[in-house]
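Hi team,

Below is the intake form for Sulfotransferase family protein from Hydrobacter penzbergensis. Please confirm the fields before the structure is written into the shared record.

FORM ID: S-0412
PROTEIN: Sulfotransferase family protein
ORGANISM: Hydrobacter penzbergensis
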Amino acid sequence: MSGKTVISDLLREFDGYQVPVNTFEFNLLRVQNGLLDMQKAFDKDWSPIRSDAAIRAFKRIVERAGTVAKLSNPKTLFVANGMNYNAYFNNRFLEISEAYIKSLIDFEYESEWPYLSLNESGYKQFITRLTRTIFPKKIFLEKIYGAGNADFVKLTRGYLNNLYNVIAESTTKTFVLHNAVEPFYPMAGLNLFENAKAIIVDRDPRDIYASNFVRHGVHVPAAEVKRHWDLKLGITGAANIDVFIKRQKMIHDKIDTSLDTENVLRLNFEEIVLNYEDTLTKIYGFLGETSQAHIRKKEFFQPSLSEKNIGIWKKMSDQGAAEAIYYALPSYCYKN
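The structure came back. Fields below:
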């Protein structure tokens, strides 16, 4: 999926909509060991082992995502992963997250817990094994979390509300989040909010591929493309056309729109740009808004400028790649 910036810029023009900078993504639900994984351990596949492991794993996610690296505090350099959530949420993310985690725990006790060794580093396992060899009677006590009786959905909705309330502006009535839920089954994530909707934007995979090589309508020199790859573009698989195609096919094949509800709106990047007014009508209806809420129309999203980003694959020097994508994924390519 691609094209979230179009919707973000469009919603910046709506009265009462608070939109983060385009580079900020709220990943707490969908990342491994995030809220969706923890919900499964609590509500769908509970056991003492899995619920304890879910609490531990989420605590690590919170610590890494929340901690801001500071040279004045060397320890943070080994913990922070660059998401800097504590700074984004007015230095309240760690505090609010810790209170949420505590609300999920029914009781704690100490015991030996062999399951922890499965996720320990090799160094720590070696030290433990060596210590047991030297002191065979030593007992390694661990804090165990008993969790499973809490209303997970209710507490999680309260947690997310608390987080966003600390950054709410006086005029805010709706928060916009980037990539908070997955496009494959968005309702799983939406259900963890009190009142949430998802707008999912798809784009011609040839243009997704071409965006790695063509910017502002100009083909980018190979040396610059390589630098771009080295920094971030490898995530799309674009360094290898076969991998890119397989990845795009897998992403699209895993989407089951039959699971969507009225709280999910799927759009194409091309129709948003080329059928601007008709798409606006869809979005107004989906959000329960009228055109009166659109108080800064075309101030941030200008269809005439975005139109230049449609069909950029035609500017690639390697047309063989575009042909291969179309041959493998014809139903996902925009036809004009």
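SUMMARY LINE: The chain has two domains: 20-175, 186-332.

Thanks, M.
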